[in-house]
Amino acid sequence: MASLVPLKEKKLMQVKLGELPNWILMRDFTPSGIVGAFQRGYDRYYNKYINVRKGSISGINMVLAAYVVFSYCISYKELKHERRRKYH
């Protein structure tokens, strides 16, 4: 059965693989659109992991793990040259 929801209003997980290029082109890539996307993402993360009644440290741990992975990826070029090598 055909979808009754317009392509622009679909979420990423609802988009079929063939519709993906058209869906990406319909997104708002203006500076205000990008800022709005980051704000929605932050609000969703904050309400799901931080702003809860019985909170735990898992929400903060995810941010720290993402920071560690990101900083490793940034400094990989320098770390690659510091590997121990055999001196023949």
Automatic annotation (TrEMBL):
Bilayer topology reads:
Single-pass membrane protein
Similarity field = Belongs to the ATPase F chain family.
Pfam families linked to this entry: WRW
Q: What is this protein called?
A: ATP synthase F(0) complex subunit f, mitochondrial
What does the UniProt keyword field contain? Acetylation, ATP synthesis, CF(0), Hydrogen ion transport, Ion transport, Membrane, Mitochondrion, Mitochondrion inner membrane, Phosphoprotein, Transmembrane, Transmembrane helix, Transport
Function statement: Subunit f, of the mitochondrial membrane ATP synthase complex (F(1)F(0) ATP synthase or Complex V) that produces ATP from ADP in the presence of a proton gradient across the membrane which is generated by electron transport complexes of the respiratory chain. ATP synthase complex consist of a soluble F(1) head domain - the catalytic core - and a membrane F(1) domain - the membrane proton channel. These two domains are linked by a central stalk rotating inside the F(1) region and a stationary peripheral stalk.
Query: In terms of domain of life, where is this protein from?
Result: Eukaryota
Protein's gene = Atp5mf
Q: Which GO terms describe its biological process?
A: proton motive force-driven mitochondrial ATP synthesis
Report the GO molecular function annotations.
Answer: proton-transporting ATP synthase activity, rotational mechanism
Please name the InterPro entries in this protein's record: F1F0-ATPsyn_F_prd
Q: Does the keyword Coiled coil apply?
A: no
Coiled coil regions, renumbered to chain: none
Subcellular localization(s) per the UniProt record? Mitochondrion inner membrane
Organism lineage string: Eukaryota, Metazoa, Chordata, Craniata, Vertebrata
> What do we know about how this protein assembles, alone or with others?
Component of the ATP synthase complex composed at least of ATP5F1A/subunit alpha, ATP5F1B/subunit beta, ATP5MC1/subunit c (homooctomer), MT-ATP6/subunit a, MT-ATP8/subunit 8, ATP5ME/subunit e, ATP5MF/subunit f, ATP5MG/subunit g, ATP5MK/subunit k, ATP5MJ/subunit j, ATP5F1C/subunit gamma, ATP5F1D/subunit delta, ATP5F1E/subunit epsilon, ATP5PF/subunit F6, ATP5PB/subunit b, ATP5PD/subunit d, ATP5PO/subunit OSCP.
Q: Which GO terms describe its cellular component?
A: mitochondrial inner membrane; nuclear membrane; proton-transporting ATP synthase complex
- Transmembrane ranges? 56-76
